[in-house]
Amino acid sequence: MPQNHKKILMIGKEDFFPVAMADYAIQLASRLKYELIAINVNTGSMSHDLFIKTAFKLSSTAGFRETAALQGVEWNYQVKCGEFGRAVEEIMNEIKGIELILTDSEQNKLEIGRYSSIPAYSFITQYKQRGESIMAELENNKKPVGKMVGYGIGSAILYTAVFMNADIVTTYFTRGSWYAALPIATVFVFSFVHGAFASNLWSVLGIEAQKSTGKQLDQKKSIQVSKRPVTRPRAYAAKPEARVNPFHRM
Hints:
Order of helices and strands: EHEHHEHEHEHHHHH
CATH architecture of the largest domain: 3-Layer(aba) Sandwich
Shape: rod-shaped
CATH class of the largest domain: Alpha Beta
CATH superfamily of the largest domain: HUPs
Low-confidence stretches: 125-135, 219-223, 235-240
Helix content: 55-70%
Number of domains: 2
CATH topology of the largest domain: Rossmann fold
Mean pLDDT: 77
Largest sheet: 5 strands, parallel
Number of strands: 5
């Protein structure tokens, strides 16, 4: 392997690199005109022979070498066995010209930093954060159509049942004793179901209540605290000899 060309090291503890990570490394190496070295490290998850066989098979099936060739990138694939940090140290001593390291977890990145001063980047961690933020945004933007329809049907059923059984409702609701609790319970049920329907309806229409933040409350408090009563000037001067009694001649 040529030792004088600049290289990107892609390294991980699993027997297979995530496809998104490998594609990113290949594209990056293509743009920078770097060689790409991909190394899977067996840290004891399985026997070394089985790990090597599985890793090479998965890499071949994924077509990483063919993808790299199409991008004009030299793909050098290896498998190592042992402690991850020691494997990194060994790689640094064997291979010269590595400019950056790409790995598949934040923990691996920290271990690499103990054995190498070459910049290391955690692809999967950043990828997951982007994915989680996108999913959270999608969840927030989801319209609760199903809830709106469900509570709407429930409201219609309740109202229909009351109107179709008006005589029975009147008979039981006008009795004394514990029957007096029936109107109250009915009001609570109607209020909950119809209120949930109305709330989801507004959400589907895109109308949301404005949420006040703690920062806004702190600003309001600071404004209230900063208010001070305005002191008016006294009618008399401060000096006793300058005071004038308007009633001294009466």
